[in-house]
Design brief:
By secondary structure, the chain is of the alpha/beta class. The chain is built from 13 helices and eleven strands. Helix 10 links the parallel strand 7 and strand 8. Helix 3 crosses helix 4. The longest helix is centred in the first third of the chain and has 27 residues.
């Protein structure tokens, strides 16, 4: 199998498409190419052709075919495990994208701060879809202050925030806990330190930060208030993704949710910088207007957040 794409070609040329990965997962479940083809809605010849095309693309044999059925090769079993993660991520992407479309018949309006909207909410929406498949959900994403404003203006039924406390006028419940990390690109001088960073030095250093009103900024402001307060930001950006990209590029150190940088830390595109004597932890909360306990789909989503993070 010598027609696999070059490592320098675009990722879309090197990774099989979603339909091919779903077919491979179906083969793994059924042990039969024919039954897998029926599950994904294509003919058996088309399924066989798609598997062969994927094998050529990857340069490895994935399926052993015999009169008794289709069995994954050792390489195929490994690729299937990777494929499952991609399909699960695609399901989360789909759940989030559907909610963002804000359909007019939405019966559950959700407002979420950026980190929760990016890294936790799609999974919760998948779980809600399993419980209530006919519930239409709309999602509004912003910082924690904006979420509170939406709820108080009756523009959302349930909110999720990341700050230090429940915003005024709202009740809430803790649904998860998070840790903020100081990170930098491997090329940054902090990445080569042998001792923990002093809180005063962290406070005095211009950082890449989220905007005021974000939960991340609130926690950092509070933690460093006794050490002279935050210096003027090096960059002030409106999303976790933007802060992360700037830090990875080497623009400067940043403070980010541990939820957001698992892959970057594992691949060493970012390095955690330990800080002495500063606790950068926060509780992630579901919130709603005081005296108006969530009901219906909002209550169900609240219950699911506890089930999936507990």
């Amino acid at each position: 199998m010598s027609s696999e794409p070059s490592p320098t070609s675009p990722l879309s040329h090197r990774v099989p498409d979603l339909g091919a990965l779903e077919l491979l997962l179906a083969v793994a479940r059924h042990g039969s190419l024919g039954r897998a083809a029926r599950e994904v809605g294509i003919t058996q010849p088309a399924a066989s052709s798609r598997i062969r095309s994927m094998e050529r693309q990857l340069g490895v044999a994935l399926v052993d075919r015999s009169p008794r059925g289709s069995r994954l090769t050792d390489a195929g079993a490994l690729v299937t495990d990777w494929a499952r993660r991609i399909v699960e991520a695609a399901e989360a992407f789909d759940a989030g994208a559907q909610a963002l479309r804000g359909r007019r018949d939405s019966r559950l309006r959700v407002a979420a701060s950026m980190t929760i909207a990016e890294y936790l909410l799609p999974g919760w929406l998948i779980a809600l879809r399993g419980e209530r498949p006919d519930t239409a959900v709309s999602l509004m994403a912003g910082n924690s202050a904006a979420v509170a404003e939406r709820l108080l203006a009756d523009e959302a039924d349930l909110g999720f925030v990341e700050g230090l406390a429940v915003p005024d006028g709202l009740d809430g419940a803790v649904v998860a806990r998070d840790r903020l990390l100081v990170v930098a690109a491997p090329s940054h001088p902090w990445a080569r330190r042998r001792r923990e960073l002093d809180p005063g030095e962290l406070a005095a250093t211009p950082l890449i930060l989220r905007e005021r009103g974000s939960g991340t900024r609130q926690v950092l402001d509070s933690a460093l208030s006794a050490h002279g307060g935050l210096a003027r930001p090096l960059l002030e950006l409106a999303s976790t993704t933007a802060v992360k990209a700037a830090a990875v590029s080497g623009a400067g150190p940043a403070v980010l949710s541990e939820l957001a940088i698992v892959e970057e830390l594992a691949s060493r595109r970012l390095v955690e910088i330990p800080v002495e004597g500063v606790l950068l932890r926060r509780e992630l909360r579901a919130v709603w207007p005081t005296g108006h306990r969530p009901t219906g789909p909002a209550r169900d989503l609240l219950s699911l957040t506890r089930a999936t993070t507990g």
